[in-house]
Structure formats: structure tokens, C-alpha cells
């Protein structure tokens, strides 16, 4: 059953990645008329990592034999929220002389609000994998989630450009550390 559902999950998350990669490509191609904002670019890489980690984590669901409609709808909602998150980092159409700093701050509340929603959806999704014996919940998860929420709430509330820069780098280090201590340790142990 999961192979069938996994296709839809892959399409949604693939569209999120596509939007981010096309946005980066257009930024490079139109570098003469696009004003780049480094914080926004760091968040693009953060969201790419997040989407890839989520996509990787969705694979654990392949062990679930019985798929009630509630579980399917929840996973689809989570995937859609991730797509919405990715779609806020670049406009669908690049206008002449696009200012990515202004674009980021115009969409900042939506971006961090949706990222908070995604993180809150991650909690029951991860715990359900543990309850269903699909995967152990990593011990580091109890550190990752509160720190991630603190970064995202601060990002939502702050319009200070220095704070936004620190938060983007902090989240990058947080997710890299979490992935290193959870995913890589599993690979080494195998």
C-alpha cells in the first residue's frame, strides 16, 4: 500500500524541491537584476535539507501494513505544508529587479508560521512511527524539536536582520547536527 501512497508523497515533496532549485537557478541566471539576500539563500538550503530529510524519513512508513484514511490524510497534509513552506521562498515568476531581501521580509510571517506548523506536524508523525514500531524515536529528538521551535518562533517575531541571519545559520547547524547524530549513526551501525 505504501508504494502507492509513496508516489503521491514523492510528487508533492518533489514539487517543493523543484520550486527551490528553480528559484536558485533563476537567481543565478538573473544575477544582474536580482538583489540576492544571503539569509534567504541559507533558508533555501535549510528547507532543501528539511525536505530531503523528511523524504528519507517517510520511507519508514513502508513497514506499515494497515493504512487507515486518517493516517493517509495526515501524511498528505504534512507533505502539502512542506510544499507550501518551500513555495514561500521564491516567487513563481521572477520580476525585473527582484529584491529577495524585501521578498523574504514580506513573506516572513507566513514562512515562519508555516515552518512552525510543519515542525508541530512532525511531532505526531515521528511519535506515530515509534508507536507503530516502524522506527525508534531518536533520543536527540527531545532536543531538536524545542530548539527548532525556539528558532522559528524567534524568526516569526523578529524583524532584525542580524537576528534573522543568526537564526538561519543556527537552524542549519541544528539540522546538520541532528542528521549527523541520528541518520549517520544508524548507517555506521549497520
Model description:
- This protein is globular.
- It has one domain.
- 77% of the residues lie in helices and 0% in strands.
- Helix 1 (2-29) packs antiparallel against helix 2 (38-58) and helix 4 (100-131) packs antiparallel against helix 5 (141-157).
- The chain has helices spanning 2-29, 38-58, 69-87, 100-131, 141-157, 161-189.
- By secondary structure, the protein is mainly alpha-helical.
- The mean pLDDT is 90.
SSE order and pairing:
Layout: H1 2-29, H2 38-58, H3 69-87, H4 100-131, H5 141-157, H6 161-189
Helix pairs in contact: 1-2, 1-3, 2-6, 3-4, 4-5, 5-6
The domain tally reads: 1
Uncertain ranges: none
Class by SSE composition = mainly alpha
Strand content: under 5%
Number of helices: 6
Alpha carbon gyration radius:
17 Å
Count of distinct strands: 0
Helix content: over 70%
Average pLDDT, to the nearest integer? 90
Rough shape? Answer: globular
Q: Which H/E pattern describes the elements?
A: HHHHHH
Instruction: Please give the alpha-carbon distance between the first and last residues.
Output: 27 Å
Mind describing the biggest β-sheet?
none
Amino acid at each position: 500500500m505504501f508504494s502507492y501512497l509513496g508516489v503521491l508523497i514523492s510528487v508533492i515533496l518533489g514539487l517543493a524541491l523543484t520550486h527551490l532549485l528553480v528559484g536558485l537557478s533563476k537567481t543565478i541566471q538573473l544575477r544582474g537584476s536580482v538583489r540576492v539576500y544571503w539569509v534567504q539563500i541559507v533558508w533555501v538550503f535549510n528547507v532543501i535539507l528539511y525536505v530531503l530529510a523528511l523524504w528519507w524519513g517517510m520511507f519508514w512508513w513502508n513497514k506499515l501494513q494497515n493504512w487507515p484514511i486518517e493516517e493517509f490524510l495526515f501524511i498528505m497534509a504534512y507533505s502539502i505544508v512542506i510544499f507550501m513552506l518551500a513555495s514561500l521562498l521564491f516567487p513563481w515568476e521572477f520580476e525585473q529587479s527582484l529584491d529577495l531581501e524585501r521578498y523574504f521580509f514580506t513573506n516572513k510571517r507566513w514562512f515562519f508560521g508555516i515552518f512552525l506548523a510543519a515542525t508541530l506536524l512532525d511531532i505526531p508523525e515521528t511519535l506515530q512511527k515509534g508507536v507503530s514500531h516502524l522506527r525508534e524515536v531518536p533520543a536527540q529528538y527531545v532536543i531538536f524539536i524545542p530548539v527548532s521551535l525556539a528558532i522559528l518562533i524567534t524568526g516569526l517575531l523578529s524583524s532584525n536582520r542580524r537576528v534573522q541571519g543568526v537564526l538561519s545559520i543556527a537552524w542549519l547547524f541544528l539540522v546538520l547536527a541532528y542528521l549527523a547524530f541520528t541518520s549517520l549513526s544508524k548507517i555506521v551501525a549497520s
